[in-house]
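Hello, quick one for you while I still have it in my head. I'm working through a protein record and want to make sense of it properly. Would you mind checking whether the tokens look sensible for this chain? I owe you a coffee for this, so here goes:
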Amino acid sequence: MRRKNPHLFSFVWTAFFLLIIFSTSAYASKEELQTKISEKGSEIDILEKEIAGYQEQLTSIGAEKQTLQSAIKTLDITVKKLSADIQLTQKKITVTERTIEELASNISAKSEQIEQNKDALADSVQLMREIDDTSLLEIILANERLSDVWNTVESIRQFQSGVNQHVTVLKVLKKDFEDTKTTQEAERKKLLSLKNTLSDQKIIVDQNRREKDILLKETKNKESNYTALINEKIAKREALERELAEYESALRIEIDPTSIPKAGKGVLAWPLKSIKITQYFGNTEFAKSGAYNGQGHNGIDFRASVGTEVFSAGNGIVTATGNTDTIKGCYSYGKWVLIRHNTGLSTLYAHFSLIKVSPGQEVSTGELIGYSGATGYATGPHLHFSVYATQGVQIVRLGDIKTVTNCANARIPVAPLNAYLDPIQYL
């Protein structure tokens, strides 16, 4: 056996030792980043509690009688909540950026470890070739004592085991490297989404501030003026409802029952992360009080403060979007989105503060499509959600139906009564 072999064995085990030292040193910087992330995490918890407090105040005010002061208070608290939302998003952006920084550090460390293992493995392969070229007879002749022969053979066995360990470590490192890269890419997408959310939140808070200015200008800060304004909205809304009720009751579109899915949980996904239903479908208490011209509620309402993210209930294509508020005196859905799903169902989302999709756009289940609000006719911020049999729903210009209302140039979805489906049956 060549005398240099023991030195080469020593080199291989030294490489293993250096690998352990390197891993330990890399851990120090990782701990520093984790400490910074934890600090931001505590700040996020505080902001989330603050936001929850604002939400409780908004819920409490929403249960009170509508007055000018309650409307102004709602707008003021909404601005505070939205401002806290913005701070929360900024904190999350910081955490995500630091997470990406940590992942980059880990990727760099793993890359260096992989190179170290490659170098050690290359030396091991070279030594393996020398061992393979050495016969047992040469080993016996190179050693004077039989015990030395067995020691050499055992050293070779241990070395081969070490090579196998190197191969295993290298495979694990490569897999870990790939997983970390995948995680980093996901965090980068998350960061982009958070930055988009931050931009959207700033737009919404500006809108809400303008709404307060408009309200004060319209009412001249007088309760009597506010009451008159509310009564006017109610009258115009009821006139529109009557016209729609007449039109939809007269529509005759045959719906093929095989064109829609059977009722069942999970056919559609919930459009909000947090679910609180404030009005169900059909002949609700509010409907019995005289609302909706005796037709019943054509969807369900969810409690959702201004700026709450709204998601698509399924894969599909955005059929149309609209904003009835662009027509002065038209009190309807406000900002709305209609999505046609590949199941034979279509879903309507109304009263948005900000729409994030366009007609013809493909969307996936759970994809952000906008933010809830109180546009159109709404007694408070909420999300209205309707489900149709796609065969029956159509977009119409209201002036082509009737001309009594102020909504002639507004466009909204309409459908025969048999095309309206109870959303709860599919959620």
Summary: The mean pLDDT is 80. Residues 146-219 form the longest helix (74 residues). The longest strand covers residues 345-355.
